[in-house]
């Protein structure tokens, strides 16, 4: 059995955007651990960040699987809501800024690590913007992570050259329903959720939705805040992080869905070539929302990668990719080629 403890902690004071009137933003963080420890050691600590528009509980099926593997001694897993998502959005409801900067997410990840006094070995795992956030955290503070897992990260020039998401769809999307029963019925009929794992969908309905004073229910993440998050203050955080991937020295896994709109042979080549210790793992039949569609396979990919680097090769000296190879695609990308 897993014990879940919810922590409310201050967001990082190092950021571009504070709460309204410079108010202190807060973060809702879940800590997962076994009722009975597997060993006397602290084990491996993991910190997980969700995708835009979702929340920390979407990770729970993956988390349960990670604790279930006999080869890994997982001590604690921390999953958190970005300050304008999930329970964090409720905590900050009256002070949410009307802009978002992805680098602020990275500083919040580092804040969680410092505040909870997480010690290595620690694995940073993030989906979509969460994956980019883990990379940015390591760039801000090198040697934070023992290894990183980016699940279909929005971390490519492709995202800006040909936007992966239609921003207009966010503003037009319904986000209020009469009650949870109606919400569940409509979600089950919605093609968007057809491919989701049933447990993840139940968690999304339970934890991604809030009750309103008039008895209706709504998404915890306001759709305007989701829009701000995707827009990233009209900046180039994705480009900045992508072209600094070669600075990351720890092993990094790029786990993607076979049918993801971010997946391409060129992108795979760019990612692997631009990293010192990058690896690739593809889940068949899944889209960008691979964590929601096949959490078991996502967990399998994470477990294999973490076991390889933190157990099998723990004391092995690894020769990274030759840095001279890392920047050969820079001109290719900026010259406007299709990725």
TrEMBL record:
Q: Which UniProt keywords apply?
A: Hydrolase
Where would you find the membrane-spanning parts of this chain? none
Is Hydrolase one of the keywords UniProt gives this record? Answer: yes
| Domain AB hydrolase-1 intervals | 47-299
Q: Which Pfam families match?
A: Abhydrolase_6
GO MF assignments: hydrolase activity
Q: Which domain of life is it from?
A: Eukaryota
List, alphabetically, the PANTHER family matched.
Answer: HYDROLASE ALPHA/BETA FOLD FAMILY, PEROXISOMAL MEMBRANE PROTEIN LPX1
Q: What is this protein called?
A: Alpha/Beta hydrolase protein
